[in-house]
Amino acid sequence: MSLPSLPVRERLSEVRYEIRGELARRARELETQGRTLIKLNIGNPGAFGFRAPEHLQRAIADHIHRTDPYTHQQGLPEAREAIAAHHVARGTPHASPERVFVGNGVSELIDISLRALLNPGDEVLVPSPDYPLWSAATILNDGRPVFYQCREGNGFLPDPVELEALVSARTRAIVLINPNNPTGANYPRELLERIVAIAARHNLLLLCDEIYDSILYDGHGFVPVAPIAGDAPCLSFGGLSKVHRACGWRVGWAVLSGDPKRSAEFRHAMDLLGALRLCANVPGQFAIEAALTGADTITPLCRPGGRLYEARRAVIEACAASPHLELASPAGALYAFPGVVGDAAEGFDDHGFALEMLETEDVLIVPGASFNVPYRNHFRVTLLPQPDVVREVFARIDRVLDRRAQAHAKVVPMKKKARPAA
Prior knowledge:
This protein is α/β, with parallel strands linked by helices. It has helices at 22-32, 54-62, 77-89, 105-117, 133-140, 160-165, 189-202, 226-229, 264-276, 288-293, 299-302, 307-321, 350-361, 387-410, and strands at 38-39, 100-103, 123-128, 144-151, 157-158, 171-177, 205-209, 234-239, 252-257, 325-326, 335-336, 339-340, 363-364, 366-367, 379-382. Strand 4 and strand 5 (157-158) form a beta hairpin.
């Protein structure tokens, strides 16, 4: 007699995370068979030959003798002081070391912040497309993500009027991902001011995922939300993983700003949840001060001639040359989010396309629907490969889309013969 299978949490069925999901598992199977894949599913700089800057590596090495004990649940005091000083310098109100939380990457802090905030049934306004950890963490903390649309025709920027119309009596927070993953959109000050005003009118917490804050192209500038928010409660997330190419160190931080009295209970909840997991990875925290006060190593990569800039240029040129693709050029971050158009888009299924790219072209991409969009004709690629690799990937993408377009063109419905007049 067979025993029943072990049940799992029911709400997991609502969670999407194809970035490391079914397609990634199939990719591993193909690699065990000896296939060589080009994997563009994860923004993981170290996997593409990038290294964390030497002065960050040296900071950890110089302090390795201090890394054995637990540290304070909110992080090393000197690390929190450096983060607070960085935020004070860019105008964040009420930034102080006591309101800084260091975590095992921003991912852990997203989960902790939502666990501190939400009661069952509470709602969080999340962009669509979103980085799916935000919607997943909302669901798994018994909340409900409510998606506000960031349409391609508007440069993947949200419409504040549409966003405010989604606010209900259960809404607790607005999530902003800027610069955006997966689209690369960069939010202008006027738009952020309007969203901040919405949060202030409805007493909502602003959750600002700013992990790509220094990865910008073509003269675009980053506008942090906290200085605009003033006394309104705002939690700003940053870290070492992207700007400083140190994903594996798992070092992220969150800075709580705004009127301290209004957010005192939330701060204590964050502190409690941080204490329950004891502390974040200690060695990596010794690199924080060096990262925030040392040389700027990301900007040269984002200028003409820099590797990220040239990879982005390769994507833009490939999409412009393709009869099957359109692209809102990414202004920041490490991704592009092309859309499939024309004959190739007829009956298009983004997951099926991603599987075909993997099985027939040895390329791993992420279907657009993984980012909680209501359409199925987009996909995400990372800008981390060498430009020549990017060009090769898009040649393979066009090869598959050519086949789809030709197959559709051959299927022409037969016209019915006219009946003779009675």
